[in-house]
Amino acid sequence: MAKKSMIEREKKRQALVEQYAAKRKALKDVARDESRPMDERFKAQLKLAKLPRNSSATRLHNRCQLTGRPHAYYRKLKMSRIALRDLGSDGQIPGMVKSSW
């Protein structure tokens, strides 16, 4: 199980990303638009830099929904390999059979 503080920090980041997504996208569109004047693009870039760092989507890290483990994460299932193996062994995941040879 991951530290509670790390899991909560990730939840806080996720909330900030969702809160600032529209504003961040609008500012990025202005900053990248070549047809706009240079000073307007520069001002948009400065406003973008003043937004909270944790509101950027690249600061998010995938974590297991069950345990909070950040490594060996399967995107399709939203869980780590260890949680997947435990649930598979218990027969909780349809179609998954424990393998042995």
TrEMBL record:
Q: Which GO terms describe its cellular component?
A: cytoplasm; small ribosomal subunit
Entry coiled-coil feature ranges: none
Question: Taxonomically, which superkingdom?
Answer: Bacteria
What is a biological process (GO) this protein takes part in?
translation
The record's GO molecular-function terms, alphabetically, read:
rRNA binding; structural constituent of ribosome
Keywords, ordered alphabetically: Ribonucleoprotein, Ribosomal protein, RNA-binding, rRNA-binding
What start and end residues bound the annotated signal peptide? Answer: none
What's this protein's family per the entry?
Answer: Belongs to the universal ribosomal protein uS14 family.
Chain's role: Binds 16S rRNA, required for the assembly of 30S particles and may also be responsible for determining the conformation of the 16S rRNA at the A site.
Subunit-structure text: Part of the 30S ribosomal subunit. Contacts proteins S3 and S10.
Task: Please state what the protein is called.
Answer: Small ribosomal subunit protein uS14
Originating organism: Oceaniovalibus guishaninsula JLT2003
